[in-house]
Amino acid sequence: MLCYLFGSTDGTLRGIANPFDRRRCEARIEYERGYARIWQNDATRSCETAEDLEEQKRLAHLSFATLRASNAELLKRPILLRGRGRDFCEPFKDWMPLDDYDDVGFPSDLATTPKFVLNDARKEYLAVRWHSPDGTARNVPDGYRSAFDEQMEYHTQALEANREDIAKHYGSPYGSWRGIPQARLAAANRYARLWLGRFESRCEFELALLRVTIDEMDAEELDRKADELIESIERQIEDVAQDILQNILDEQGATS
């Protein structure tokens, strides 16, 4: 279905004529795979017996069957899907079930405290956005350094605000993680683990989309320059032809 959304004529990646839309579709597929991995790891985290694992597999099969049936309905008229891929290129407007708060935690989640720090994908995104040639902060050009630093600070503070919101939801009076009641700490740690995993997956998707857009713009610029060069050559050829014609006419006028 995703391939159709990104313009495929036959429901496959190779059926997407535009190479940049094909890459966007590939990025979206990887994004959804990442989400599935987060879900799978969480679903199997509490499995202590083979029976527990089989039950999770059964639930996964049911969920997949429901999704497959829903997609089958949409695929009855695939022409209506084509060209809507752009709607699937806004990762931070997506909602998925793991975004919901959960009041159930696992004992293993008590062993670690979540760390709300900017992931590598978000750092690289900001560096690329501010013209770092290799996607690293140290190579952001001096002319963009101030804007880059401001964006880094903004995203760091936004992450901290999310941490405080999550802590308050789980009972911390002032938004500190240490203020979460012990009875709700496992659930809070579990949700934070899922939230951070999902956030990283989204950031990786957004970085992939940014690189596709940059490559697409570069290709368009090359095409524009090629067109200008062709037009320039055509004008030169036309000017030479006009000069030759004028010389012939002048010679004919001189001999008549």
TrEMBL record:
It comes from the Bacteria. This is Uncharacterized protein. It comes from Bradyrhizobium betae.
